[in-house]
Amino acid sequence: MEKTWRWFGKKDKITxxxxxxxxxxxIVTALHDIPNGEVWTLESICDLKNYIESHxxxxxxxxxxxxxxxxxxxxxxRERLIENYIESLRNLGKAGIxxxxxxxxxxxxxxxxxLDYKWDDGTSSLFFDKIKFGYFDCYxxxxxxxxxxxxxxxxxxxxxxxxxxxxTESEQLVDTIIVKTQGFVNGNIKEGDxxxxxIFNRLLALYDGIDRDILRENMKYFLTRIxxxxxxxxxxxxxxxxxxxxQMLGLPRIVSSAEDVEWVMKAVDNPHNGLTFCAGSFSAGxxxxxxxxxxxxxxxxxxxxxxSTNILPNGNFIEASHLEGRGHLIELVRFFEKENPAxxxxxxxxxxxxDDAGKAYNxxxxxxxxxxxxxxxxxxxxxxxxxxx
Length: 389
Description:
Blueprint: E1 2-6, H1 16-21, E2 26-29, H2 42-53, E3 58-63, H3 69-72, H4 78-94, E4 99-102, E5 114-118, E6 124-128, H5 130-140, H6 152-164, H7 167-180, H8 196-205, H9 212-233, E7 236-239, H10 258-267, E8 273-278, H11 279-283, H12 290-297, E9 301-306, E10 309-311, E11 317-319, H13 329-339, E12 344-347, H14 368-388
Parallel strand pairs: 1-2, 1-12, 2-3, 3-4, 4-7, 7-8, 8-9, 9-12
Antiparallel strand pairs: 5-6, 6-11, 10-11
Helix pairs in contact: 4-9, 5-6, 5-7, 12-13, 13-14
């Protein structure tokens, strides 16, 4: 498998020479300075591609070319935004970039409640606490009918938390869920925005009356529109599964299970309509068997995220070691090395460790933590190749 790394462009504190030194082969990146929905020009794409290649690396995967909310919700600007998306894909194709990771999650890309959860060894990782999240949903966001999504026991715990949580802790929860985990991904909300809760509620309102069936049809329409340009330039669209893989905030989720992925693949039955196989996202759902999912969708998998989680009691989950957890990454790597050894893969969500602290890296995207995970996965790949020979 090709060893790739998510890199956030020329402003990233982690430089391409650093990545070259640690054995990275391909870069996973995007034009982060271009606002969501605007066209990626061929000139801008080639400028970044040439910069990457000047360091002896290649631009392997776009992660991501964001799908605007008006496309997902069939808003009034849908047609214009799809045309912009097609033009961006065409320009990527002309530049020879063939893999595009994207998602179709409404409003929010991924959800955690703690970005610095401490482990006994002194490292830290991302964590999801259902009680904290439910408190945010019911008491901070005050989403209409939110209480219907939780048990009586959970609602009681939210009430107890409300008695003791400080204003600082409440603000930190907002910053974690709405700003820190979203701002660097799709641009809906960014650092410095005033009243992010109000902005977030306006975004949620875009999906009033939109259920799973409607969101599915909106996705099918989008994929149908873009497949001709994907066919023309041999571009693989790689949908990322929902994170976590179940309904949140009353929003429909449509890429959370085997049945969901099967629907996406059949709705537009084209080999360019494919999957980003994120073991971490899939493994956070107790209903998912990661290895069985890999076997079932191997032929439509174009990109792999190597990350693992452990599900804890009461609906919590934590990022696990890359050698442990429900992601079963050793077995997963063995399978993909046999089925498609040329697949680009990147390690995902490394621990915060050593000198990573205080560097203000994007959540989950530390340097030493990911370098450590890459070394682990590199060793796994080499061992598997040796044993198979």
